[in-house]
Design brief:
Blueprint: H1 3-10, H2 13-19, E1 29-30, E2 42-44, E3 49-51, E4 57-58, H3 60-68, H4 72-82, H5 93-125, H6 137-154, H7 159-185
The chain binds zinc ion.
């Protein structure tokens, strides 16, 4: 929502008139701030005002600018201040950067987590059925790497862990290839 709209949504014309000392009748007429008069002929509607004497009209911001004798920009600032309207904050560069970092971090965490689950699966599925059976390559790999994977998950966020994630991403691709070859071999 643009700034002026936010202000107009928060502050009606009569609200501002009252706040800035424009006295109005019960019918909502006040003495026009745009021309000198003794009988009120400026009608204050909720969203706009209209003067039957000088035909001046406008919204709450125009009215406040005239009453306070300031520019429209200053009137907006004043209204935001007096009615506690927070100026809309644009997403800062920093915030966008943080978001991206977070996204990268999540991606890294997923790589690690997938790797860890994969090792657990190797331990469960590729365990030898008897003591004579030759140890499966993936089973051995999992045995050798699972503690380290656990450690990385626990210390996630540290810089040295980030380095390891790159290596693990690469190794995961190799493991994918081995699994694929096995599936083809049946
Ligand atoms: Zn007038």
């Amino acid at each position: 929502m643009i700034r002026a709209e936010r202000i107009k949504e928060a502050v009606t014309v009569p609200m501002a008139a009252e706040y800035y000392g424009l006295r109005s009748s019960r019918q909502g007429f006040c003495c026009c701030p745009f021309h000198a008069e003794k009988t009120p002929s400026c009608k204050l509607n909720k969203e706009y005002f209209y003067c039957f004497g000088c035909q001046e009209h406008g919204d709450v911001i125009n009215l406040v600018a005239q009453v306070l004798d300031v520019s429209v920009g200053e009137a907006m600032r004043q209204l935001e201040n007096d009615f506690h309207i927070a100026p809309e904050s644009k997403p800062s560069k920093e915030r966008i950067m943080k978001k991206c970092e977070k996204r990268d971090e999540n991606a890294e965490y997923r790589v690690l987590n997938r790797y860890y689950k994969r090792l657990k699966r190797y331990l469960a599925e590729n365990a030898p059925q008897s003591s004579e059976e030759e140890l499966d390559e993936l089973f051995v790999y999992a045995q050798q790497h699972i503690s380290f994977a656990e450690y990385l998950l626990e210390s996630f966020g540290r810089e040295d862990v980030q380095q390891e994630v790159k290596r693990i991403e690469f190794e995961s691709k190799e493991l994918d290839a081995i699994e694929k070859m096995r599936r083809i071999a049946g």
